[in-house]
Design brief:
Subunit structure: Monomer and homodimer. Part of the essential Sec protein translocation apparatus which comprises SecA, SecYEG and auxiliary proteins SecDF. Other proteins may also be involved.
Number of domains: 4
Distance between the termini: 60 Å
Number of helices: 30
InterPro entries: Helicase_ATP-bd (IPR014001), Helicase_C-like (IPR001650), P-loop_NTPase (IPR027417), SEC_C_motif (IPR004027), SecA (IPR000185), SecA_CS (IPR020937), SecA_DEAD (IPR011115), SecA_motor_DEAD (IPR014018)
Helix content: 40-55%
Number of strands: 22
CATH architecture of the largest domain: 3-Layer(aba) Sandwich
CATH superfamily of the largest domain: P-loop containing nucleotide triphosphate hydrolases
Shape: globular
Pfam family, one: SecA_DEAD
Largest sheet: 7 strands, parallel
Membrane topology: Peripheral membrane protein
Strand order of the largest sheet: 3-4-2-5-13-1-14
Subcellular location: Cell membrane; Cytoplasm
CATH topology of the largest domain: Rossmann fold
């Protein structure tokens, strides 16, 4: 109440920001006559003038009014479309690194050109991110007319492009593409052996379209590049055969709210007996336990034709939020194999992760990030906490006149669908177009079958072909049109009303279920009422719907019984709609906690990956790695010498014979330290002597093949060693994360233990990489000069690019170019000297 009072008196924070931007919009409008007087040639020349001013350190903020006014005039001349004032506000929000929430049909695609043009003037590149290839290609071609008119180049990244085409697209001033392609290109670049094949430039500024879908809905699912791991699939089949004998509440418990299935003591005992093992929780049986848990999830939490379908003898994932088939995408950690065993199709071999990143961490690496969508306000706290992005709700150009009717709630699903079918038939008879939203493919197919029997012509969006989908959704506003769609199909395409439809009440949205997220429901509603058009929406629900059944259906059931609601009758009350929104809010909060928890774990892995990728990029881009290799040799020399001598022991008692053997073992040359009196009286002096001898021996080998070939060899060995050991480390970290939850039973904080043990494992990794590089370079046999082009990595293995389940790697760390000296405090914060802590 108090908050509402202050909002009425002082206005909301959103209102205050809009008021603050008003003078900027006025300044842009004042420049319009000046821009209209420019010739086409003068307008293109303005771009070069702006670039020069940026090069002379003028800020983009100062350039904004002129740049926006120029783009608006260019749009009028090329597309015949003039940016509205609300689009100018949205463009400013994007430039300032905010999320612009703009209702469907208000012109987000055109709005993005303002911020894209302004930020492209820096020459560092702008990425515009969309949800599918069709929209990326469409928007790039459409908006290219504006950019080309102003002498800027446009590129587009599509799924089937080769490396050279991608590199060319990234070289453009403004590059369009999907979130998947941008993320995979980042990972691919960090697996390459040739700097000339690197595709992506600096991650400067990104505008993410449908930002809620990409940064919220898909935040739990990492992009993974994997290669085949040789493992038997027999255990999946064996465990799967057991599951039908397991009973709910006796052998396992199911928490649908938390989406977890857990074995009981009885279930564990039954599993041990059937698998013939004494203790499933013995470390030796951890893989068997993992298979059993994944099989349990596959049988109890994943439903055919809702979470996945079986097509062409393959299990294909259905995207939870869009209803689209995610061909080529696989659940990780053996879950996909468990589903294949459940459905009796061929069980594919597991893949081993070679590189991975979440969208959360990829997009947080951009110097500046912004986004646009029709629905973001409900997730504003998460955008702020995870991405430091504020949401600005942009007013509509024309008042919103859509009527959102209260939900109709029935006792059973059958009653609900019967009532929904009746309304569809009534609206069709009247001529009013209707868009029917469903939460799963099987519901849309069942509705389609019923409508066919009733003789109602209609279209079904199967979300398989984005271009056809966009054409169907664009025609959904024509008279008599009936379109059945999963909730999110056709997103990014406007539904324009046909002739005579305005008089009939516009497009009607009929939702057959509420989604767990209010935002998805709002997106469905937002298909109607664009640009001041009339429209309406209503959701049909039943007490058997998952949302009501799991979150509060009993209370509503009691209300219906008390009111004496008969079969086929419904209740319609704002109290009920409010209760449903509260349930949705509860689920949204739960899902946010899951994403936040995963990110905390992922940040550990992400920091490690950042270090590895930085070293790898250094090895790839630097012309001469000899100084890096010599540093490794010096560090290794120091380790070797200090293993046999000490400043606390007299020089006469040093184990020089042992040191000679170790030098031979590590550096592959003989060094006589015992036949004459030792002239080096301190360990450091002796280490310097050994290093000088090792350096001389190394340079002798280098002279045999020539300096250029030696530099190529060093680069190849460094990259190959880093990649091999990093791949092994990823697998080890996966295993650590998989079992870390058990530490909670010992009253330990799993996250703290994961950080500590992960850090220790990473230190071991860095030491192994250095040791192996030195070992290979000193023991490699030089026979004759080898052309640099022959020093290529082994043939590329078959790689799988997947946007899989809930495991990933995470947040960027700040880069440092400072050289840490041996006796400096260690950067890890341990308090020890660098040489005694993390130097290796």
């Amino acid at each position: 109440m108090i908050l509402n009072f202050f909002t009425k008196v002082f206005g909301s924070s959103n209102d205050r920001i809009l008021k603050k931007l008003a003078p900027l919009v006025q300044r842009i409008n004042e420049l319009e006559p000046e821009m209209k007087r420019l010739s086409d040639t003068d307008m293109a020349q303005k771009t070069h003038e702006f670039k020069q001013r940026v090069a002379n350190k003028e800020s983009l903020d100062d350039l904004l009014p002129e740049a926006f006014a120029l783009v608006r005039e260019a749009s009028v001349r090329t597309l015949g479309m003039r940016h509205f004032d609300v689009q100018l506000i949205g463009g400013i929000a994007l430039h300032q690194g905010m999320i612009a929430e703009m209702k469907t049909g208000e012109g987000k695609t055109l709005m993005s050109t303002l911020a894209a043009y302004l930020n492209a003037l820096s020459g560092k590149g702008v990425h515009i991110v969309t949800v599918n290839d069709y929209l990326a290609d469409r928007d790039a071609q459409w908006m290219d007319e504006i950019y080309r008119f102003l002498d800027l180049s446009t590129g587009v990244i599509l799924h089937d492009m080769n490396d050279q085409e991608r590199k060319q697209a990234y070289a453009a001033d403004i590059t369009y593409g999907t979130n998947n392609e941008f993320g995979f290109d980042y990972l691919r670049d960090n697996m390459k052996f040739d700097k000339d094949s690197l595709a992506q430039k600096q991650l400067n500024f990104a505008i993410v379209d449908e930002v809620d879908s990409i940064l919220i809905d898909e935040a739990r699912t990492p992009l993974i590049i994997s290669g085949p791991a040789e493992k038997s699939t027999h255990l999946y089949t064996q465990v799967n055969a057991m599951l039908p004998g397991f009973k709910k509440d006796e052998d396992y418990t199911l928490d649908e709210e938390a989406k977890t299935a857990t074995l009981t003591e009885t279930g564990i005992a039954k599993g041990e007996k059937l698998l013939n093992v004494d203790n499933l929780y013995d470390p030796a049986n951890i893989e068997v336990l993992h298979h059993l848990n994944q099989a349990l999830k596959a049988h109890t939490l994943f439903k055919r034709d809702t979470d996945y379908i079986v097509k062409n003898n393959q299990v294909v994932i259905v995207d939870e939020f869009t209803g689209r088939l995610m061909s080529g995408r696989r659940y990780s950690e053996g879950l996909h194999q468990a589903l294949e065993a459940k459905e009796g199709v061929k069980i594919e071999n597991e893949n081993q992760t070679l590189a991975s990143i979440t969208f959360q961490n990829y997009f947080r690496m951009y110097d500046k990030l912004s986004g646009m969508t029709g629905t973001a306000e409900t997730e504003a706290p998460e955008f702020k906490k995870i991405y430091d992005l504020n949401v600005l709700v942009i007013p509509t150009h024309k008042p919103m006149v859509r009527k959102d009717f209260p939900d109709l709630i029935y006792k059973t699903r059958k009653e609900k669908y019967d009532a929904a079918i009746k309304e569809i038939m009534d609206l069709h008879k009247k001529g009013q177009p209707v868009l029917v939203g469903t939460i799963s493919i099987d519901v849309s197919e069942d509705l389609s079958k019923t409508l066919k029997k009733k003789g109602i012509p209609h279209n079904v969006l199967n979300a398989k072909h984005h271009k056809a989908e966009a054409e169907i959704i664009a025609n959904a506003g024509q008279k008599n049109a009936v379109t059945i769609s999963t909730n999110m199909a056709g997103r990014g395409t406007d539904i324009k009303l046909g002739e005579g439809v305005v008089e009939l009440g516009g497009l009607h949205i009929l939702g057959t279920s509420r989604h767990e997220s209010r935002r998805i429901d709002n997106q469905l509603r937002g298909r109607a009422g664009r640009q001041g058009d009339p429209g309406s929406s209503r959701f049909y629900l039943s007490l058997e719907d998952d949302l009501l059944r799991i979150f509060g259906g009993d209370r509503i059931h009691k209300v219906m019984d008390r009111l004496g609601i008969e079969d086929g009758e419904h209740i319609e009350h704002s109290f009920i709609s409010k209760a449903i929104e509260n349930a949705q809010s509860k689920v949204e909060g739960h899902n946010f906690e899951i994403r936040k928890h995963l990110l905390e774990f992922d940040d550990v892995m992400n920091q490690q990956r950042e270090v590895i990728y930085r070293q790898r990029r250094q090895a790839l881009l630097e012309k001469d790695l000899k100084s890096v290799v010599l540093d490794m040799m010096e560090d290794k020399t120091w380790d070797v010498v200090n293993g046999f001598v000490s400043d606390k022991t007299p020089a006469k008692d040093w184990d020089l014979k042992g040191l000679e053997k170790e030098i031979k073992q590590v550096f592959n040359f003989d060094l006589d330290l015992t036949s004459r009196p030792l002239s080096h009286t301190s360990p450091d002096d002796l280490a310097d002597h050994v290093f000088d001898q090792a350096k001389t021996y190394y340079e002798t080998k280098e002279a045999m093949i020539g300096a250029d070939q030696a530099r190529s060899l060093e680069r190849f060995v460094v990259l190959q060693t880093v990649d091999t050991r990093w791949k092994e480390h990823l697998l080890a970290m996966d295993h650590l994360k998989e079992g870390i939850g058990l530490r909670g039973y010992a009253q330990q904080d799993p996250l703290r233990i994961y950080k500590k043990e992960g850090f220790d494992m990473f230190q071991d990794l860095m030491a192994r990489i250095k040791d192996e590089i030195v070992d290979i370079l000193f023991k490699i046999q030089i026979t004759a000069a080898v052309p640099a082009e022959e020093l290529q990595p082994k043939p590329r293995q078959e790689l799988t690019f997947s946007h899989a389940s809930e495991d990933a790697v995470k947040k960027p760390v700040k880069r440092t170019t400072e050289k840490v000296q041996r006796n400096d405090p260690c950067p890890c914060g341990s308090g020890k000297k660098y040489k005694k802590c993390c130097m290796n």
